[in-house]
Amino acid sequence: MSDSPKLGVQLAPRHDRGLALSNPVMLASGIAGYGTEYAELADIEKFGAVVSKGTTLMPRAGNPQPRLVETASGLLNSVGLENIGVDALIREKAPVWAEWGVPVIVNIAGESAEEYAAVAGKLEGVPGVAGIEVNISCPNVSAGGMEFGVEPALACGVTSAVKSSTSLPVIVKLSPNVTDIKEIAIAVQEAGADAICLINTLKGMAIDIDRRRPYLANSAGGLSGPAIKPVALYMLYEAAKVTGVPLIGCGGIVCARDALEFIMAGATAVQVGTVGLSTPDICPDVLGGIEQFMLDNKFGDITDLVGVAGDDPGG
Ligand SMILES: Cc1cc2nc3c(=O)[nH]c(=O)nc-3n(C[C@H](O)[C@H](O)[C@H](O)COP(=O)(O)O)c2cc1C
């Protein structure tokens, strides 16, 4: 009888404490809020890690409704970082997470590098918080958010500011709305990112021809779901060529095959997003499929699959 394949991954090998996950399938930011309600719909502890909704220094109401519309194989959202603010998160949510057996990573956002650093600083030493994911890629806010993710110097500035205000492992989440993903990936790695997540949503819109108006109150939004998977995969593959820190693949993953594509492109872990809105209990399917693939193809350790599609066949 063959042994079960090893699924554990390390997201922050260069960090003192590291960020060890029991498996590579994470729940993406914005899908489960703070995870507490989601935990009633699915076994949240099956995920390798859970990423919370984007959190800012002060609470935010988000954008006006409607802020979600379905498109072909995708979803447009303009939620706009609605959140309870970091103080309420520390008071009300982190104590719940501290009881969970799954690491929770707090996704943070801000309108300035100082705000990002202040949010990260407040999370220092809070039980229940295993790491920080820096969202420099939100397309749905008027100030901050994506601006930091499209300019290497700004991306570097935010990453350095967060790194110097926390001892937690720091993941930086990149925007696909750029000309060259490689230069942003290099910038955040040089600024000290422990890992890099690619990608956030692609800027897009839809128009209701009967009302002759955009569907979303905010006009434009961020496109997610299967429609963006080839773009996300390409960006991860490109980033893998120029970086040495662990990469996390995100964008349109709905099944094990999708997850394996990202891992073979160079991802150490993956995040499932939009699919989790309709199928909260998606993790066992994705994970079970990965495990079956490994058994069928005689891979004993998931890390042996990372980047195999990126190897130069010529040696
Ligand atoms: C409704 C919704 C809210 C989101 N909120 C956030 C957020 O707060 N912070 C963030 O970094 N990404 C956020 N995202 C982006 C997702 O985490 C993910 O990067 C993106 O949706 C692509 O993955 P997917 O195609 O699997 O959904 C949100 C996505 C959706 C659909």
What labels would you give this structure?
4-stranded antiparallel sheet, binds flavin mononucleotide, 8-stranded parallel beta barrel, TIM Barrel, 315 residues
Textual characterization of the structure:
The chain is built from eight helices and 16 strands. β5 (68-71) and β6 form a beta hairpin. The chain is an alpha/beta fold and 315 residues long. Helices cover 28% and strands 19% of the residues. It has one domain: TIM Barrel. The strands form four sheets. The protein has an eight-stranded parallel beta barrel with strand order 3-4-7-8-9-10-15-16, surrounded by six helices. A four-stranded antiparallel sheet has the order 5-6-14-11, with no helix packed on it. It has a two-stranded antiparallel sheet with strand order 1-2. Bound molecules: flavin mononucleotide.
Furnish the topology, listing elements before pairings.
Layout: E1 9-10, E2 20-21, E3 25-27, E4 49-51, E5 68-71, E6 74-77, H1 86-97, E7 104-108, H2 113-123, E8 131-135, H3 152-164, E9 170-174, H4 181-190, E10 195-198, E11 202-205, E12 207-208, E13 213-214, E14 220-224, H5 229-242, E15 247-250, H6 256-265, E16 267-272, H7 275-278, H8 283-296
Parallel strand pairs: 3-4, 3-16, 4-7, 7-8, 8-9, 9-10, 10-15, 15-16
Antiparallel strand pairs: 1-2, 5-6, 6-14, 11-14, 12-13
Helix pairs in contact: 2-3, 3-4, 4-5, 5-6, 6-8
Bound molecules: flavin mononucleotide (FMN).
Flavin mononucleotide binds near residues 138 and 272.
